[in-house]
Amino acid sequence: MPRFNGHFLWSRLDRVRSREDGMAIPTVLMITTIAFGLAAVAAVGTITAQSGSTRDNRSKTALAAADAGAQLAMQRQNKVATVAATPCVVLSAGNLVAGNLPSGQTWCTGIAGSVGSSTYTYYVKPATGGAGAASVVSVGSNGGITRRI
After folding, report:
1. Residue 2 DSSP SS3
2. Which residues are registered as beta bridge partners of 113?
3. Do residues 117 and 124 touch, judged by C-beta distance below 8 A?
4. Which of 22, 93, 99, 118 could lock onto 88 through a cystine, CB 3.0 to 4.6 A?
């Protein structure tokens, strides 16, 4: 059985440590790993910024839909003659007509519509006693984002 020669092992290790052969591969791997890490951080930042931009666009579109609903509500209120007994403007068989308030309510039933890919629903609170102005609330939605005016 051969004997273990410790001196031989230590001399080999000293020779490997003193030479720089073989250091290129670990150095290149380390630099490549760091470069990929920096690229990943930049990619995550870009994706996050794009997501925020998409949400901002949907928010603005939902607000525009709510505004369109409010303008349509006022246009319809001004177009149809209403009286204290029938203060609401409602759609009946595709026509705008004066209608009653829902029992026990102060706001007319909401009327929904769409503008492009967005939807809106508006609600009108008629002026009381023939004086003052009607109040309008409109809710617009786009891509899961909702805005109200």
Report:
1. coil
2. 120
3. no
4. 99
Which residues on neighbouring strands pair with residue 91, listed in sequence order? 96
Pairing of strands 118-125, 95-99: unpaired
Quickly state the pLDDT bin for 46 (edges 50, 70, 90).
confident
| Whole-number Å distance between alpha carbons of 1 and 98 | 111
**Secondary structure of residue 88 in the 3-state scheme:** strand
Question: Hey, which residues does 148 pair with through a beta bridge?
Answer: 139
What SS3 class is residue 113?
Answer: strand
Q: Which residues contact 85 (CB under 8 A, 6 or more apart)?
A: 100
Q: Are strands 111-115 and 135-142 parallel, antiparallel or unpaired?
A: unpaired
Phi, psi of 92 (to 5 degrees): -130, 115
Judged by DSSP in three states, 101 sits in coil
**Side chain identity, residue 67:** D
